[in-house]
């Protein structure tokens, strides 16, 4: 499971969390001792440091297992991870219904939403976070169109979000990462809706690199900027002034190589250049740029988040 997470065969904060929990359960198939569980925990925690859901899920599961007699741990692990997976589905559906209340009042023939990266069911067990309100809007019969950032360098928007929306029959248009500001300036975006890998107690949002660059023009052009994430993404120690975690820097080669399908239908990789690169995977958006945060408990202002942890 460590390899799958590190190489992004599974990605998206909620899915990483549940997958890491399954990694602990898999480890329990071989050894249920305290030391073995602790080793598995540390190995999984080292895979991707920025998304807090991973640490939340692994810590939660290991705490429960270490309080369980050894002979019961294997079965307990599998029961708990299945419960976590089911819980994720329920939470994301509730996020969708809460987010729908922000889309329904938009009085336009077609609601235009801009999203960044992939925060749909490919990033969770089902429904997604930022895409969940869009799926609920579609089910409600609202006319909706999605501007999909390509999301360089791994192109999660172009390859994953666009694919999801195509399967769901939701009209969408892929745009370059630099086009969002122009679209907002031209009045072609009614709201921005993104997910999060970590949310600070002050409402700061750590998400896929490029999120901050969408929040800036949204603020200038008075376009609502919404963030959808489960409460497990909240970090009580993180504020914009106190960034207590590591922002993952990925292999610089991702900047210069693109994977795609060739004319024979085979996955291939194309190198587009070689130079020194810098490839941070996430950025941080200050709370004053966030209009509302959507979680399973409803819709909140950034200043209200402390109450969710009481």
Automatic annotation (TrEMBL):
<dbReference type="InterPro" id="IPR011559">
    <property type="entry name" value="Initiation_fac_2B_a/b/d"/>
</dbReference>
<protein>
    <recommendedName>
        <fullName>S-methyl-5-thioribose-1-phosphate isomerase</fullName>
        <ecNumber>5.3.1.23</ecNumber>
    </recommendedName>
</protein>
<dbReference type="GO" id="GO:0019509">
    <property type="term" value="P:L-methionine salvage from methylthioadenosine"/>
</dbReference>
<keyword id="KW-0413">Isomerase</keyword>
<dbReference type="InterPro" id="IPR005251">
    <property type="entry name" value="IF-M1Pi"/>
</dbReference>
<dbReference type="InterPro" id="IPR000649">
    <property type="entry name" value="IF-2B-related"/>
</dbReference>
<comment type="function">
    <text>Catalyzes the interconversion of methylthioribose-1-phosphate (MTR-1-P) into methylthioribulose-1-phosphate (MTRu-1-P). Also catalyzes the interconversion of 5-deoxyribose 1-phosphate and 5-deoxyribulose 1-phosphate. Part of a bifunctional DHAP-shunt salvage pathway for SAM by-products.</text>
</comment>
<dbReference type="GO" id="GO:0003743">
    <property type="term" value="F:translation initiation factor activity"/>
</dbReference>
<dbReference type="InterPro" id="IPR042529">
    <property type="entry name" value="IF_2B-like_C"/>
</dbReference>
<dbReference type="InterPro" id="IPR027363">
    <property type="entry name" value="M1Pi_N"/>
</dbReference>
<dbReference type="InterPro" id="IPR037171">
    <property type="entry name" value="NagB/RpiA_transferase-like"/>
</dbReference>
<keyword id="KW-0396">Initiation factor</keyword>
<comment type="similarity">
    <text>Belongs to the eIF-2B alpha/beta/delta subunits family. MtnA subfamily.</text>
</comment>
<keyword id="KW-0648">Protein biosynthesis</keyword>
<dbReference type="Pfam" id="PF01008">
    <property type="entry name" value="IF-2B"/>
</dbReference>
<dbReference type="GO" id="GO:0046523">
    <property type="term" value="F:S-methyl-5-thioribose-1-phosphate isomerase activity"/>
</dbReference>
